Amino acid sequence: MNLSEIDIHAALKKYFGFSQFKGLQEGVVKNILEGRNTFVIMPTGGGKSLCYQLPALMQDGTAIIVSPLIALMKNQVDAIRGVSAEMGIAHVLNSSLNKTEIKQVKKDIKDGITKLLYVAPESLTKDENVEFLRSIKLSFVAVDEAHCISEWGHDFRPEYRNLKAIVTRLGEGIPIIGLTATATPKVQEDIIKNLGIGDATVFKASFNRPNLFYEVRTKTENIDADIIRFIKQNEGKSGIVYCLSRKKVEELAQVLQVNGISAVPYHAGFDAKTRSKYQDMFLMEDVNVVVATIAFGMGIDKPDVRYVIHHDIPKSIESYYQETGRAGRDGGEGHCLAFYSYKDIEKLEKFMAGKPVAEQEIGNALLQEVVAYAETSMSRRKFMLHYFGEEFDEINGEGADMDDNTRNPKEKVEAMEDAVKLLKVVHGTSEKFKSKEIVNTLRGKNNALISSHKTNEKEFFGIGSDKDKSHWMALIRQMLVAGYLQKEIEQYGVLRFTDKGHEFLKKPHSFMMTKDHVYNAENDNAIVG
Ligand code: ADP
Fold first, then answer.
1. In this protein, which residues make up the domain named Helicase C-terminal (predicted)?
2. Which of 8, 14, 15, 49 has most ligand 1 atoms within 8 Å of CB, for mutation?
3. What pLDDT tens digit does each residue of the chain (529 aa) get?
4. How many Å apart are CA 159 and CA 455, to the nearest integer?
5. Which of 85, 218, 491, 511 is deepest in the core (most CB within 10 A)?
6. What is the number of the ligand 1 atom nearest to the C-alpha of 12?
7. 177 by DSSP, 3-state: which?
């Protein structure tokens, strides 16, 4: 399709009333109009829907939008219907429709009226639907919330795994558009592989939120008092306090109320009426604080949330990013304060104990990243963005001084010699070990795994015995973030070299490390990688 800039801008104005594209939207829209496979990674609120809606509206044929939730589909269909006089411009095709409704949907599609057809993956697998869709002109297939394809995402749905096969049945050369707000490289790799879009143009927006301040504090038995103090210091501002359990939500909301703070509880155990009452009270600013489980937040658009407190640490960095992302949407101040104790990590581990082994291993790997985030002394923003596969300049980057560690830096020490020792051990053990065994090897601590590899007989066994475990774990984390090592996620954290790591070992140079916080030194598990 050959469309000028003017056409695209005119269509943006005509259908959505916007005079400008947001972020990477324009490039995405053009790429889709050119009929190419496309992969869009943008944080929530980045404007992903328009990326496929606009080209669908501008093109001949119908675009299929695969979406995991009926509620999401309905919202989108209503919104799209608002941009046109024609009701049939967008439809949902699902099992809740009766025969007459299905007939109407099919008629509108055949008549070329329907530009966007929303389907759940389950409906798309039905033979009768496939047969029908094969017979019509399709512009492209967009897979929304594409992270549902990956077990490493937060919302794995096995039906998403069949999408590529179905699209192939629908016809030849239909462009596929994947969209997600999940930024981890592993999830992205799974999406590309499963949708078969290795040739896709990738549009990835930055996940940096420069106006958010990140802080982690040690969780003690005085946590309620700490939270009350923080809220009182921020009197009159809106904030969310996340807790893991419904019980804690109710308890803490009460404690806050007793202490003169206007707060409501929110969790999925309340009936719909109560939930919407409390939500409205928060949105309308009848109360300042909502104490909630993760049930609160999806689709809630309050731009001036000034702080997000985590009474309990979440189960992944991904969740932490999503939940803290609800602060400072208007670009103003947003303080993200997490309380951390290793005991909470153990609690989360226990929750996973009954699950299938693969799920547990994934869950644990994600949890160890949370531990590393909480215990690190480096820029938390840099750490988080590195987790999302994004480089961040901790000196000049936007929001560089917006975290506790950067504001109150720990002393740095020269660690070139130790870095060499570490890399030697990774090299000498043939890049087969996870952090824990690398540290045991450095410290000369034998165990069954180490002796089965005869690592205890190697000359480098114990070369780092002069330093403790927390020192070596900190160094590993910092060398990972600095890009000298990488973690093999597929193998749950095996450490490997990068090119930069090889260079370093050949020609060592200064490496300044910060000493990490150790919150729970008496707990030997506190610092596993
Ligand atoms: P995402 O799906 O990435 O979370 P949405 O598609 O819901 O984001 O868009 C987030 C918000 O941004 C919506 O309110 C939408 O109307 C608005 N928006 C999208 N594109 C533009 C634009 N070009 N100009 C102004 N607002 C936009």
1. 222-379
2. 49
3. 556 777 999 999 999 999 999 999 999 999 999 999 999 999 988 899 999 999 999 999 999 999 988 778 888 888 888 877 788 999 999 888 899 999 999 999 999 999 999 999 999 989 999 999 999 999 999 999 999 999 888 788 999 999 999 999 999 999 999 999 998 999 999 999 999 999 999 999 999 999 999 999 989 999 999 999 999 999 999 999 999 999 999 999 999 999 999 999 999 999 999 999 999 999 999 999 999 999 998 777 899 999 999 999 999 999 999 999 999 999 999 999 999 987 898 888 888 888 888 888 889 889 889 988 998 888 999 999 999 999 999 999 999 999 999 999 888 889 999 999 999 999 999 888 988 899 999 999 999 999 899 999 999 999 999 999 888 988 998 898 888 998 876 666 789 999 999 999 999 999 998 876 554 433 333 333 3
4. 44
5. 511
6. 23
7. strand
Residue 525 to residues 158, 302, 375, 444, Cα–Cα distance (Å) = 33, 39, 13, 18
Tokens (6 digits) for 15: 């259908």
In Å, what is the CA distance from 111 to each residue of 44, 82, 87, 100?
A: 35, 20, 13, 16
How far away, in angstroms, is 105 Cα from ligand 1 center?
27
**314 CA to centre of ligand 1 in angstroms:** 27
Q: How many whole angstroms separate alpha carbon 327 and alpha carbon 90?
A: 33
Q: Which atom of ligand 1 is nearest to the CA of 21?
A: 23
> What is the value of ipTM here, to two decimals?
0.98
Q: Report the nearest-CA residue for atom 2 of ligand 1.
A: 48
- Could you identify the atom of ligand 1 that is nearest to the CA of residue 25? 23
In what order do the strands lie in the sheet containing 201-204? 90-93, 116-119, 62-66, 138-143, 176-180, 38-41, 201-204
The candidate with the shortest Cα–Cα distance to 109, out of 73, 67, 60, 76, is 60
Instruction: Label the pairing between strands 62-66 and 138-143.
Output: parallel
**12 C-alpha to center of ligand 1: Å?**
12
Residues with CB under 6 A from ligand 1: 18, 20-22, 25, 42, 44-50
Beta-bridged to residue 309, according to DSSP, are: 241, 337
